[in-house]
Amino acid sequence: ANHYYLEKQRFLLEILHRVHEPLLQEQWLGLGQQIVSDQSQYVHYNEHMEQFYAQLSAGRLLARDVYYDGQQPEHCQQYVGLFHFFYNTREWSTLRQNICWARVNANPVLFLHALLQTLMKRDDYRALVVPKIYELLPAPYHHEQLLHTALRFNQANLQPSQALLPLNLPSELRNTSQWRAAMSEVQLLSIDAGLTPLTEDPGWRAYWYYINMATTLLQEPQDTARLREWCYWQLSQLVARYQLEQLEQRVPGRRSAARTWLLQRYGQQQSVGVEQQLRSWEQRVETALATHSCRLANGSHVELSRGQNWQLGLAELFPYDLSQLRVASAVASPQQLLDPHTMLRDVNFYALAARVLRLYRAYRAAFQPDYAQPVLPTEMRLVAVQASALVTYDEPVDVDISSLLPGSQFYADKRFQWPLTLQVRRLRLQQRPFNLTFQLQSNRTQSIVLRSFLTTASGTGPYYQLDAFLTVLQPGHNTLSRASVDFAGTVGDHLSYTELYHYVRLAERQQFDFPLNITTPSCGFPRRLLLPRGGSQRPLAMRLFVVATPYQFKARQAQEVSCDFSSGVSSWDALPFGYPFERQLEAPSELSGDNASWQEVAIVHER
Ligand SMILES: *[C@@H]1O[C@H](CO)[C@@H](O)[C@H](O)[C@H]1NC(C)=O
Ligand SMILES: *[C@@H]1O[C@H](CO)[C@@H](O)[C@H](O)[C@H]1NC(C)=O
Ligand SMILES: *[C@@H]1O[C@H](CO)[C@@H](O)[C@H](O)[C@H]1NC(C)=O
Ligand SMILES: *[C@@H]1O[C@H](CO)[C@@H](O)[C@H](O)[C@H]1NC(C)=O
Ligand SMILES: *[C@@H]1O[C@H](CO)[C@@H](O)[C@H](O)[C@H]1NC(C)=O
Ligand SMILES: *[C@@H]1O[C@H](CO)[C@@H](O)[C@H](O)[C@H]1NC(C)=O
């Protein structure tokens, strides 16, 4: 990494530090006086920017201390405007000035969304490592009580700590002499937060935040039909995974509906508006299912069973941003259910999403034509599937909430410094690496795709897809093995905000060769959450379901795990995402035959 890179990287980490509080650094305050208004500095100067600039000139920008609500058209409009003021810049110096301006003048959450969007979508800045959303904006991701402890900052209540967990990060970035050099002058403080249920897990909730960010504001979206399908599949994966987690509920210390700072500030709302909105949407879909016709936004009616009309109806009735759940007119105060950071902690979310998915599958079952490719492999048989021991456990991990510490800790003579770090030590769900082994018979050389799902002991769903992969079978008997660390779309752990900053400083002093390959893709699913919590008294009984389909050379490798949807989404073939569960299945026989295999498995939770 050269010094241009390091300079950008450090600027980013400093400007985002304590983003919810006013900026204190003189250097950037000076640069933040004006937004760049010279239109020649932008690749495009579009109507979103004109509108934003008009609002800015009229003094009508969203105030800093107002709750940013993406449902409100005015809020959203300003967010899109600011995004273009970042995204369309030609030079780094213009972008940097606009970032400084927005950091000083814009609503902090609006600013953060617009900047993260830019860094996700501009491929020239994708090498920059951005701290995770729960480090940048810790408040909605942690318990109220814990936040108060951090905000009061009484060192006597905080435990000194020697190390950050887990020690074994990828690329050996912790537990090394370089780590000790980088962190030598940093005081480590820790708060114990105990066990983290799935709905409170920052990684689980941030995943949803990121994929929602990444799939919106696309500049020239390719193949939106496929993207919609992908989004509904992600939603069904989250709901299925949540439901499987509910099977083993006897977890000590599980707290229900704990309130966060965010909720305390804004009050917990009943989702009355959402319920009404969803009901009227359900009625529209039920009507379409009953009459086989649908009225499009432009007023014309289409016969859904004719030609490709079912796709028009799908686009009309199933928006991929889930606006069925959105309340059109602004409600007085924010709702946990509608905030992208807190949505997945609300148990109502899963129930509402399950209703959306039920109709989605019913619609597809009713109108989806035959698959564009054969689904039955010939001259082969899936003989058996085995899983190695499936073991979950609670693993201590530190989550950086240094952003909540008082600003006075971070300045000496108005110069930024970072002398201490505050970490929440949580016990989170983790699993031992495991393998799936497949036994197959084939009478010829052929390529197939194998999809593996986890489901309840009864085999009746929900179906959670663990993995899908392409393989070549040889004539005769084939034994294939797939390791959980290789499962597609999953990611491991990452460096904390504090460590990242100090590694950059170390590299600036030329004592460290800053690696350019340490970004943990934000749109990757946390690998440690693949398996639901096992049984601790007796093993949790589940079933694996595996299905084979022929492969026809249509694989697509995109970059959605790094939140880059500009070239679409990855897929092995032309089958719908989540196949065969993208639609309601009619007969149980669809899940048996030479192409499928079931295996009873059990998950044990280790103490
Ligand atoms: C930390 O480093 C020491 C010395 O290199 C090594 O023995 C130990 O296994 C490492 N611990 C982890 C958890 O990686
Ligand atoms: C990053 O690159 C270094 C040096 O080439 C390599 O040792 C390391 O394994 C890489 N890390 C990752 C996560 O790819
Ligand atoms: C409405 O939109 C559909 C699909 O784009 C199109 O086929 C149809 O012609 C449009 N109807 C009118 C009245 O514009
Ligand atoms: C392979 O061929 C043999 C002989 O024709 C046949 O008995 C067997 O069923 C075939 N196996 C598969 C998996 O198609
Ligand atoms: C998984 O398979 C790999 C390679 O065959 C093996 O080294 C590893 O020990 C296996 N892991 C488990 C948990 O069985
Ligand atoms: C598996 O094959 C059977 C016929 O043996 C077929 O009825 C079923 O639809 C297939 N299942 C899937 C999921 O492709």
Automatic annotation (TrEMBL):
Residues 379-605 form the Hemocyanin C-terminal domain. Residues 133-249 form the Hemocyanin middle domain. One of its GO terms (molecular function) is nutrient reservoir activity. GO terms for biological process: energy homeostasis. It holds the Pfam family Hemocyanin_N. Keywords: Storage protein. InterPro entries: Di-copper_centre_dom_sf, Hemocyanin/hexamerin, Hemocyanin/hexamerin_mid_dom, Hemocyanin_C, Hemocyanin_C_sf, Hemocyanin_N, Hemocyanin_N_sf, Ig_E-set. Residues 5-126 form the Hemocyanin N-terminal domain. GO terms for cellular component: extracellular space. This is Uncharacterized protein. It comes from Drosophila rubida.
